[in-house]
Design goal:
Chain lengths: 216, 210
């Protein structure tokens, strides 16, 4: 594993020559060895087309490339950091929650409308995620930020999981998501339980949920 | 069944029973759940009037169903309290969830409430079952016995249970009035036999300013 959790809010990454890391710009806390940080104009991998794609999708969190040999400490804003290992599957995560990820992962942008049509777009708006989300695919590790720690809930075909959109952090695996509403007359008359909208995740995989309803 | 997942997430396994939880504190669930808004401070018309009068109108929802439900609120630390027929006094903003077997009500706190910056009333929880209370930072549980009374900063007080008498202490002197106070002008003193939950953080109170 490239990333090692030092404590709940910091990760240590080992960089070796020929191996690239991407991290959120300004998230480096300290480093040992010969490590160089290059701002990444295109905001991630891919060519100019991917860059334009990300700009349009508003998923272009400033990233930097970390190269060299040594160890780097990452942390940001006192947020809790969770390292997620990927083995060939796809992780969907909001770009501003990405702290760092290995260069072996393929970064992409996904249009939420492609998952669930119009409801997917509504979902993005309600959860404050916008219409696009970032996907990471391949083998490698990702460090994701969350407010108040993260816990993982496995999703199996028999057990779909419902998540509060504000507490949702990321998910991986073969998971379909849709926005489920529990709007009733109570919500209309202002007596709602505050849980009118939920993300319903079904399939097989895992979802990461934070212990807070605050966005980053 | 209440269990803690880490220190900031409460997981409740339900098999058709119901729990009461703070409005909007659900972060995830699996299985089938229904959410219904309720009102704290007691049931029925009497409860409604009390709530309106006391301002302790905690908005509570009733969660009912089969499966596991996870609750969390703004990354606060969660403490589980088991109640066996005794009474827990807690500020409504610090109460996350209670078993269906517990009754909630409102009680008058007097000067203590005013000094905490929480108003004059507090929420009581009684019956048999478990309650989850929140604190800013991990709470410590301090035992009060007849020989050892306890004095607490109003801003750091979270909850108490057992047979306790509380009195309000003020250390206001000439110096305080001159603006030279030590910042600890008011305290709550607990005497008797019971437990007091104290958080490692202080709310903004009048007492903290003088």
């Amino acid at each position: 594993m490239t990333f090692r959790e030092i404590n709940s809010k910091m990760v240590e990454a080992t960089v070796t020559p020929g191996q690239k890391l991407f991290s959120q710009r300004g998230a480096m806390l300290a480093y040992k060895g010969e490590v160089s940080f290059t701002p990444n104009m295109s905001g991630g991998q891919g060519g100019i087309m991917s860059m334009i794609g990300r700009r349009v999708a508003n998923e272009d969190t400033p990233l930097m490339t970390v190269e060299g040999s040594g160890t780097v400490l990452f942390g940001h804003g006192g947020h809790h950091v969770q390292v997620i290992g990927l083995t060939g599957d796809t992780l969907c995560v909001e770009a501003d929650r990405l702290l760092a990820f290995e260069g072996t992962l393929q970064q992409g942008t996904m249009f939420l409308g492609s998952q669930g049509g119009v409801m997917g777009m509504v979902r993005g708006q309600i959860s404050g995620q916008g219409l696009f989300t970032t996907t990471l695919k391949g083998h490698g590790a990702v460090a994701v930020m969350a407010h108040g720690g993260v816990f993982e809930i496995p999703i199996t075909p028999q057990r779909p999981v419902h998540v509060d959109p504000q507490a949702y952090v990321a998910h991986h695996g073969d998971v379909r998501n849709k926005l489920s509403t529990a709007l009733g007359w109570r919500d209309m008359v202002g007596r709602g339980s505050g849980e009118a909208f939920q993300l319903e995740l079904s399939g097989s995989g895992a979802v990461y949920v934070q212990a807070s309803e605050e966005k980053l | 069944m209440f269990r803690l997942q880490g220190s900031k997430v409460l997981a409740v396994d339900m098999t058709g029973d119901a729990v009461k939880a703070k409005n909007g504190s659900m972060v995830a669930y699996d299985g089938q759940m229904a959410f219904k808004k309720m009102s704290g401070g007691g049931e029925g018309i009497r409860g409604m009037v009390t709530r309106r009068l006391t301002g302790e109108q905690m908005t509570v929802m009733e969660v009912k169903g089969h499966g596991t439900c996870w609750f969390a609120d703004r990354a606060s630390e969660i403490n589980l309290v088991g109640l066996q027929g005794d009474k827990l006094y807690v500020e409504s903003s610090n109460l996350l969830a209670t078993d269906a077997g517990l009754r909630t009500g409102t009680s008058f706190t007097g000067m203590r409430g005013a000094s905490q910056g929480n108003g004059l009333f507090t929420t009581t929880v009684e019956g048999h079952g478990q309650a989850a209370i929140m604190s800013d930072g991990p709470a410590v549980v301090l035992r009060v016995s007849a020989q050892y009374p306890l004095t607490v900063d109003p801003g750091a007080y979270v909850a108490h249970q057992g047979n306790l008498r509380q009195s309000f202490q003020s250390g206001v002197t000439f110096r305080t009035l001159m603006g030279e106070g030590g910042g600890e002008a008011f305290q709550i003193r607990f005497e008797g036999d019971g437990l007091v939950y104290v958080q490692p953080s202080e709310r903004n109170t009048i007492a903290g300013d003088v």
